[in-house]
Amino acid sequence: NYRCIVIGASTENPYFVLSSGIRSRSMLFEFKNLGQKDLELLLERVQQKIAFKIEDNAKEFLLKSFDARAMLNLLEFALVLNEKEITLENLKKLLNGVNSEGVSSKDTHYILASALIKSLRGSDVDAAIYYLARLIDAGESADFIARRLIIFASEDISNADPNALNLAVSTLTAVKNIGYPEARIILSQCAVYLASAPKSNSSYNAINKALDYVKNNPALEIPNYLN
């Protein structure tokens, strides 16, 4: 009579990567990000083991800008630069190497893309540009972003501004030919336009209702004048 308990950990979303059969036989636990008090305690423990000074503004920067892993990683490299004191200047020099979440995980990939689309839908230009920058900085494909903008232009703007779709399609063509880093400007131009444009989901609703009717009702006879 053998009993086996399997414990697994992943940064992926189990509702996407695990089949329903496996999930039904498992107990899922989600680990939340540590809060600022937790990070303060962690930083104190590090200081107890490794004696070093840290500027107040550098400490505040660490506690407000990073998760635990990124904070410890940045601390480690900062101590290589100066093993006696952590300064804000050194932290900012090292910032680019650890601050980006990247889009390697499906969660981050789709969460950032969703945040961009929802910002566009809410006509929030600043938020749209911020999440666009997050996607670009994390290494997201310009083609992927442009395709999302095309879908948004048709689904959420539609005929309230027909030129939005033209611009989005042109954006995809342009970024395919230009590539990064200049593609960021083209994507930004399109995002600003789409966020500022009037919104209408009439085409989206119309085709969905028509498809629902077709699937759930007998086919209508085509009138003679349409033959």
From TrEMBL:
GO terms for biological process: DNA synthesis involved in DNA repair; DNA-templated DNA replication. InterPro entries: AAA_assoc_2 (IPR032423), AAA_ATPase_RarA/MGS1/WRNIP1 (IPR051314), DNA_pol3_clamp-load_cplx_C (IPR008921), MgsA_C (IPR021886), P-loop_NTPase (IPR027417). One of its GO terms (molecular function) is DNA binding. Residues 51-121 form the AAA C-terminal domain. Keywords: ATP-binding, Nucleotide-binding. Residues 122-226 form the MgsA AAA+ ATPase C-terminal domain. It holds the Pfam family MgsA_C. The keyword ATP-binding applies. This is AAA family ATPase.
